[in-house]
Amino acid sequence: MASRLSSRDVSGFKFIFFLAIMYVIISLLVHSVLHMKFITPLSIDAPLDRFSEARAIHHVAVLTTDDRQEGRPGLRKAAAYIKEQLEMLKERAESNIRIEVEETTVNGSFNMIFLGHGISFAYRDHINIVARISSADLQETDPSVLINGHFDSPLGSPGAGDCGSCVASMLELARVTVESGWIPPRPIIFLFNGAEELFMLGSHGFMTTHKWRDSVGASINVEASGTAGPEFCVMVLLLYANVNTVVLTDLVCQSGPGSWPSQVYAESAVYPMAHSAAQDIFPVIPGDTDYRIFSQDHGNIPSLDIIFLLGGYYYHTSYDTLDKLLPGSIQARGDNLLSILKAFTNSSKLQSARERESKATTNGYKDERAVFFDYLSWFLIFYSRRVAVVLHSIPIAIFFVMPFLLHFWDSRSRSCFAIFYDFVKGLLFHAAGIILAIIFPIILSILQLFFSSYALSWFAHPYLAFLMFIPCSLVGLLIPRTVWGCFPLSQDVSVIKKSEEALAEEARFWGAFGFYACLTSGFGLLLIGSKAQLVVLANSGTF
C-alpha cells in the first residue's frame, strides 16, 4: 500500500519547488543584466551624434596591436595614435568649438601608503596626452570636467579591457562632443595618461604640474578590472576635508547637501548600475586607481571611479584581448558617460579649486552620506543619510511592536512575551541558515582545492559557480528549517485557535523579518558612525 504524504511534506515540496522557480528566474535576470543582453551596440555607421561601440572597438583594435608598457615602443605608438585622432577632430571642428591638444612629459616624486606600507616614488619622462574641448568663448577661469583613462597596459597583457576600452571610449566621446553639434557649456578635459600601472604616476604628474589642474571641478576616472559587464562606480564628493564619499556598479554611497555628484549620476545615468555598499567593499580590494589621486591625494575633486568588473579572470593577463570584450558593455559605458558629462557641465555647482576652497572656508565642513542602489539597471533608488536612519529604523520597530499587536488581535489569548520569544527563535534560526549558506560553499571550495586539479575552474566559468555553490548554499539555508521541530514553541498551542504548523510558519517569517530588520538598522548606525569617524579624521588632518 502506497504511503501518503503528510501536509508538512507537501508544504515542504511546494516550498522547494517555489525556490527552484525563483532561482531560475533570478538567474536569467542576473545573466541578462551582467551580460548586457538588454543593450544593442550601435554599428560603425551609426548617427554621428550617438556614441557607437563599433567605432570605439576600432580604436581598441589599433591600441592592442603592440605592448603598451613603459619603455616599450608600443606605448609611444599608442600616444601618437591618440594624439593623431585628437588632431583630426580639431581639424574637423566647427568655428564655434575650441579644441586644444597637448603632449606633455611629466616628472615628479611623492609618498603614499599602499596596502599598509609607505612607499616613495621619483619618476621622469612619462607621457600624457591632454585635450580640452570647450566653446570658442572659453574663459580660462571657467571650471571644467576632467575625464581620465590610461593607455599603458600591464606587463604581458594586450590590455584590451584594461584599459584600451577606456581610452577607446574617451576617443569616441570626444568625437561625439565635436561632431554632434553640442557645445559644452563648461570645458571638458580629456586626460589620456601613460603611467597608471606604475602607481598612478601619469595622473599625479597632471595634478601637480599641469596648468589646467586648478580648473577641474569634477573628475571621472574610467577603469577596468575585467573586460566587460556592469560597471562598479565609486563616486566621491570631498569638500574641504576630502571625506564626503559617494559610491556607485556604476555604485553612489554618500550623499547630502554637499553630495551633488551622486545626485547628478542618479539623475543622468542611462543605465544606472550602483550600490552604496560598494564603498565598504572597495577598500578591501588590494589595488588602487587614478581616482585616488584626483579625489584624495591631490585636488580634493568631486569624483567618480567607473570600473568594468565582469571577466576579472582576464584582468592583467595575456587573455585580456579584443575578443573578450562583451558586446554592449562599451555601449552602456559610453551612453552613461556622455549623459553624465552633459549633466556635470550644465551643473551650477561645478566649481574650480579656488571656488571650492573659498566656499568650504565660508560654509564650513559638511558631511552627508546617502544610500542608493539600482534595480537591474532599470532605475536607481536614492535617499539621504537622514532619511536612511529613519527608514532603516522602521523595520526593527515593527519587529518589536508586532508581538503586542498579535496579542491584542487574538483577543489576548496569546502571551506577547511568548510570541516575542518565538520570533527571536525564528531570527536565530534564520541567522544560522544564512551562516551555513555561506560556510557550505567555503567548505566545498576547500575540498575542491585539496582533491581536484581544477580548483578555480568556476572562476573562469561563472555558470559553474552557480551550479556548484548555489545548491550547497541552499542546503545550508534549509538545514535550520529541518531541525525546527526539535525546539518546541514558547506559546501554548492548546489555548490558541491556531495550529502548531501555522504558529511555526509565523515565527519563521517574523524571525527572518527581524534578521533583516537588524541588518538595516545596523547599516543605519554604520552611516552615523562613519560620519563621526570621517569628521574626526577631517579635523585631525589625517586626509
UniProtKB/TrEMBL annotation:
GO terms, biological process: proteolysis
Q: Does the keyword Transmembrane apply?
A: yes
- Subcellular location(s) per record: Endoplasmic reticulum membrane
**UniProt keyword annotations, A-Z:** Endoplasmic reticulum, Glycoprotein, Hydrolase, Membrane, Metal-binding, Metalloprotease, Protease, Transmembrane, Transmembrane helix, Zinc
Which superkingdom does the taxonomy of this entry point to? Eukaryota
Q: Which GO terms describe its molecular function?
A: metal ion binding; metalloexopeptidase activity
Entry's transmembrane regions: 12-34, 387-409, 429-451, 463-484, 509-528
Q: What InterPro entries does its record include? A: Fxna-like_M28_dom, M28_fam, Peptidase_M28
Q: Which family does it belong to?
A: Belongs to the peptidase M28 family.
Name of protein: Peptidase M28 domain-containing protein
Phylogenetic lineage: Eukaryota, Viridiplantae, Streptophyta, Embryophyta, Tracheophyta
